[in-house]
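Z., the sequence and structure:
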Amino acid sequence: MGRRPRLLPAVGTARNLLAASLEGLLADPAGAGERGTPADPPDLPLVLVACSGGPDSLALAAVAAHLAHTGRCRVGAVVVDHGLQAGSAGTAGRAAAAARDLGLDPVEVHRVTVERDGMGPEAAARGARYAALDDAASRLGAVAVLLGHTLDDQAEQVLLGLARGSGTRSLAGMPERRGPYLRPFLDLRRADTEAICAFYGLDPWHDPTNLDPSYARSRVRGEVLPFLEDRLGPGIARALARTARILGQDADLLEELSAEAYASLRAEGDDGTVLLPEDGLRSLPAALRQRVLALAALELGAFQPSFERLRAAESLLDRKGSAGPVQLGGKVSVHRQVRGRSVLRGQPSYGSLVLRNNGSSNGPGGQQLRRPIQE
């Protein structure tokens, strides 16, 4: 009998990272035999892998398949075909076949329509992809959806945020966990996932857009990060990822405090507007005040307002010059309510900033609200 191949260290690390990410979601292995319980018992929790067929997601599928063999969960895969490249259906089919060969079940291919709706191509594709993953997870009853982003992806995300002049949440990069979505490989390098694929004898697909310099992310990946690694040392990607982890903790706290402040200040006008008392807003630190204004805009149907628009809204509190309106995006505007014939002192909107959606049925009262698209 031939000797079993020595386990690649990256594979062992990846298995540990995945198990830690799924802690509390897996079945109790107690009582399972050496080879685990029978394959795919229906009472085991289902975990889905978002699999493009690239090195990162294919490595994740292989590591997740091993976890399924221990009898602690079932593992399936969802392949999203965006239809944006020639031959995309064939690429999706090969990714699905690779997942099935690894023993994943169920494996589904979802063809989506990417509608720009004023967004860039990457954001539009991301929105369509998450809609398909949401649908599959809900329909199949999955306890988690695994995403194959690596430390390199996180470093790229931080650099892109810096280039845009973004705030804390954007510089925090991609979270390890958001709802059912888990990113267990954020501590692995891209070279590790490629090595894992080689260990399992997998032939991953390499997305040609990753080398297309017309995309900012591709330039960061192919030019900027290698330049920084060369000039500042090989630890720059790990340092950027560490920065994201630190800022993520700060962003979580700020968002929690902002949500509490918004809940305490928010009032609803009779015409579907959102009212925020000026005195209450002025009493908040700037970091919370801007986030409270953003929460109101998001509730009324806007995407995340820019820093410049939030600062313009804040300037209404100075009671100098115009009382507005200030456009916050998505047809959401804010103005300062002044005393007049129709609004007298003591009425609810007097002394408040008034936010309204001027062109959509979305808003308070249970209507569908627009949310920022996940990374």
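Residues 30 and 138 are 28 Å apart (CA to CA). The chain has twelve helices and eleven strands.

Let me know what you think.
H.
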